Amino acid sequence: MNKLLHPVHVVRVAGLVDGISLLVLLGVAMPLKYFAGMPMAVTIVGTIHGYIVIFYLLAILYAQLRLQWHVGWSLLCLAAAFVPFVWFAADRAIVRRRDRFEPKPIPLKWLVYAVVFFSFIDLFVQLPVMSTYALSLGASATVAGLVVGMYSATNLFGNIVSGIWTDRRGAYPVLTAGLALTACALLSYSLAASPAALVAVRFLHGFVSGLIVPAAFTFLANVTERERQGSQSAVSGTFVGVAAIVGPAYSGIMANRTSVPFVFATVAVLGLGLLLLSAIFLRKMDPRGRDERREAGRLARNRELLQSFAGAFFLMFSQGALAYLLPRHVEDLGYSSRMSGTLMSLFGLIAVAVFIFQARVGFRRLAPAMRFAAGLAMMAASQILLGQSSGMAVLGAVMALYGLGFALLFPAINTLLIHGTTESNRGRAYGWFYALFSAGTVAGSSGLGLVPLPVAGQFAVTGCVMLACVAVVLLTMPRVKFLAAESGSDQGK
């Protein structure tokens, strides 16, 4: 059994099956569709291949966690999932070095990363389907908008409550309570048979899911050494980015083939599995003792904490504006709606790649506040350029710049928050941090609708507001911090 479940064996078998199914899809099913008039061949083989790819991706993740090999091996295996014949070369390279790949215990911190992934995939699976699902239940356009916005509104309050409880009781009980309640809320969508019932479910879902993220990020911050906080934040960002890529695609495909409640039920099963694992492994890892849990520290208004709060708001202000404006801009240019989805996926892929780079290498000579300013400036410039761009290649390049800025900003603001807090008040800080995430999303999407300008003008307003924030950060930052290495500044403190 140990040999059968060895990560190298699992990833080799999964890769072989994936490589064969890809060749059958491209070499047999596609010719049957285009030369023999048999489109059903692609439908059947493509569906089977899709499930095989999911299994293969899980095998790559399993190998990465157990072997903890260089991330380049996982990227090579990932490329093999989409490029014919690459797997056979990758397999030979892995076999030649098999003696180097010995399984290691999975760090329990990765279980918390999985919880972060669950929380964000819970968010992203809703995006393509929620408004249409509300309309299918008989909701008017106004009520459908209320259904979509209700989640973010109550999520804000859930974040704040989570932060307070985390400081008082510790991260573990809040995290597990959030997992249990969110799984129940996801399962309750199957009971919503009317628009009013759906609004009630969304109210509950938004609040209880807001309990998870502040507790999870506080847990990670409290068990990570100070000099490793930047890398830890980049790893967290990687899981957020992957959820942003996988979630909308998964819900869009599966909801079309099954139903929206079924999609949410599968996410609930993931949450229940993580709840079980957390109850087994994380209970004794909570770094806060019982005596300390009784006293929550007050937040101090220091520069780093205020910068992290501003970054959280403007990060999601930009995201909300992008979600509101980009589909309209693409439609005005005469492209199909699929183009906006492709551009969003490109931004996500670039962000994940940069997150991985930061986790492995990082920008150690650039202080977190400078990474904050650089990332937000890139996102602001991208907003302005999007309104002035029309060609597909130019739009893609601008979205790649946006992804780079996002990947710089997210770890930087997390690191600033950690540096500006202590274990006694970090939960409350993360609660407000993610509450500002929700507020920024609402301001960026709904607020711009009140600005009487064309799409290009609204893009420009978004970018200019963000650049004003960059200017404030640079003007209030001590000169000595501009090029201070993160590790060096930590030791100096």
Sum this structure up briefly.
With 493 residues, the chain is mainly alpha-helical. It has 20 helices and no strands.
Structural features, described:
With 493 residues, the chain is an all-alpha fold. It has three domains: 7-100, no CATH class; 107-296, MFS general substrate transporter like domains (Growth Hormone, Chain: A); 301-493, Growth Hormone, Chain: A (Up-down Bundle). Helices cover 77% and strands 0% of the residues. It contains 20 helices and no strands. It has helices at 7-35, 40-67, 71-80, 86-96, 109-124, 130-136, 141-169, 171-187, 195-209, 212-222, 229-257, 260-281, 290-293, 303-332, 337-360, 368-388, 392-419, 426-445, 455-476, 486-492. Helix 1 (7-35) runs antiparallel to helix 4 and helix 11 (229-257) runs antiparallel to helix 15 (337-360). The radius of gyration is 23 Å and the shape is globular. Residues 289-294 and 480-493 have low confidence and may be disordered.
How are the SSEs ordered, and which strands pair?
Blueprint: H1 7-35, H2 40-67, H3 71-80, H4 86-96, H5 109-124, H6 130-136, H7 141-169, H8 171-187, H9 195-209, H10 212-222, H11 229-257, H12 260-281, H13 290-293, H14 303-332, H15 337-360, H16 368-388, H17 392-419, H18 426-445, H19 455-476, H20 486-492
Helix pairs in contact: 1-2, 1-4, 2-3, 3-4, 5-10, 5-11, 5-12, 6-7, 7-8, 7-9, 7-10, 7-18, 8-9, 8-10, 8-12, 10-18, 11-12, 11-15, 11-17, 14-15, 14-16, 14-17, 14-18, 14-19, 15-17, 16-17, 16-19
